Amino acid sequence: MADFEVNVDPAEAGFDAARLSRIDAHFDRYVADGRLPGWLAVVSRHGRIVHVGRGGHRDVEASLPVETDTLWQIFSMTKPITSVAAMMLAEEGLLELDDPISRWLPEFASPRVYVKGSALAPSTEPAKSPIRVWHLLTHTAGLTYGFHHGHPVDAIYRAAGFEWGTPPGLDLAACTEKWASLPLLFQPGAEWNYSVATDVLGRLVEVVSGLPLDEFFATRIFAPLGMTDTGFVASSPDRLAAMYVPASGRAVRNDAFGRLGTVRPDCLSGGGGLVSSAPDYWRFTEMLVRGGTLDNVRLLSPRTVALMASNHLPGHVDLEAFGRPLFAEMPFDGHGFGLGFSVLEDPIKARTLSSAGEFAWGGAASTAFWVDPDEDLTVGFYTQLLPSSTYRLRPQLRQLVYQALVD
Questions:
Q1: Which residue numbers delimit the Beta-lactamase-related domain (predicted)?
Q2: pLDDT tier, 323 (very low <50, low <70, confident <90, very high otherwise)
């Protein structure tokens, strides 16, 4: 997009331009030695773009460079969008955070909870309390992901066809019914576990609103915000970045994952299915840092955004204390979890220059964003390298951004 460029002198926004250039130098080294195919970063403060850096290729083999309008599979950066959708319905009085989800999804009327045993012969007990809407938003419902490989229930998910995707031919309604038939990892509300909870939340949005998830997103969020390049299929396949995985310290192309963004999926995954661009997602994060509004369009009230960006874990503990030590898109130390985002509780424990109250999330292909309300700052990072745990790109980017903030 021609207008997606630096539009303020960094010094006017409190940044040292020379220090911001360290972002480019740092990630260009990843490209130079082959660890990343390409990358794009955007830093914005007070609603003005202070830095847009990019390097490398969106498609190494075709020698196609990263452009500002490159499309990226954002995977779990879909989750905050689904969470916003659910909270929009809550603001309309159509659901409450304490509502049992079985009110709309009767397949969850009598969940069973894993007690002991193997994946082939699990022993279960009835759930002591219902799964509620806030459990889905906070990943405390007891659901899981098959790719965790850390618990017998994870193996049960894999045996049912849920690992890095969903079984062919099953739509979101069918997947939700199947997840409801599988054991929960723990009693609802007892722990935090990264999971398909946001996918179930997406199904809840469909049932409550009466719209397919893609239609709700398109009409209620993307069109109002001017997010013209975001959807479950790449709006322009020639702009879609190829996908890569690490092998012997280099990024190697993986078309099996890369093709996911080129066709409409059977299951509209509110947990990980969207393709977007840096300009589009920047508009979404700017709406959040502005308290739910952007360009005279209001999606949420400031109080709702503040609630979403608060730590909802019991006693304001962090994920290290309440979560399971498994793969997630962000670190656990010093971070709590809100309604769809990680929330930074303790910068010292997290060993970061970020502000307390920062809320954030990322995607499996190493994309990431954060919103810092104290500094009126939003940051986005885009690349296509699976998995996101390959390198410590996110803490490195935070260090580079905040060392350049000098006011």
A1: 23-399
A2: confident
Q: How high is the pLDDT of residue 257?
A: 92
> In the annotation, is 355 catalytic?
no
- Cα–Cα distance measured from residue 109 to residue 106, given in angstroms and rounded to the nearest whole number: 5
Joined tokens for residue 122: 């699990």
Q: Which of 44, 76, 354, 366 is catalytic?
A: 76
Which helix (H) or strand (E) segment holds residue 256: the answer is helix 255-258
3-class DSSP state for residue 15? strand
Phi/psi of residue 246, each to 5°? -80, 145
Q: Cα(51)–Cα(235) distance, rounded to whole angstroms?
A: 25
pLDDT over 90, % of the chain: 94
CA distances, 337 to each of 135, 136, 203, 329 (Å): 11, 12, 21, 12
Q: What are phi and psi of 159, to 5 degrees?
A: -65, -25
Could you tell me if 339 and 312 are in contact, meaning their C-beta atoms sit under 8 angstroms apart?
Answer: yes
Q: Residue 58 and residue 29: Cα distance in Å, rounded? A: 16
Pairing of strands 293-294, 297-298: antiparallel
Number of H helices, E strands in the chain: 14, 16
Question: Please, what is the angle between helix 172-181 and helix 197-209, to 10°?
Answer: 130
Rounded to the nearest 10 degrees, how much is the dihedral formed by the CA atoms of 330, 335, 339, 341?
-30
CA distance 210 to 238: 33
Instruction: Tell me the pLDDT band of 187, cut-offs 50, 70 and 90.
Output: very high
Q: How far apart are CA 180 and CA 201, in angstroms?
A: 13
Per residue in 201-253, pLDDT (tens digit) is 999 999 999 999 999 999 999 999 999 999 999 999 999 999 999 999 999 99
Location of structure tokens 């331009």 = 17
35 pLDDT higher than 60: yes
The C-alpha atoms of residue 386 and residue 393 are separated, in whole angstroms, by: 12
From its phi and psi, is residue 47 left (phi > 0), alpha (psi between -120 and 50) or beta? left
> pLDDT (tens digit, 9 = 90+) per residue, 390-407?
899 999 999 999 999 999
The answer to whether 357 and 27 are in contact (CB under 8 A) is no
Residue with the two structure tokens 């996101």: 388
Question: Cα angle at 224 between 222 and 228, to 5 degrees?
Answer: 40
Contact assessment for residue 324 and residue 150, using Cβ atoms and an 8 Å cutoff: yes
How many CB atoms within 10 Å of residue 390? 16
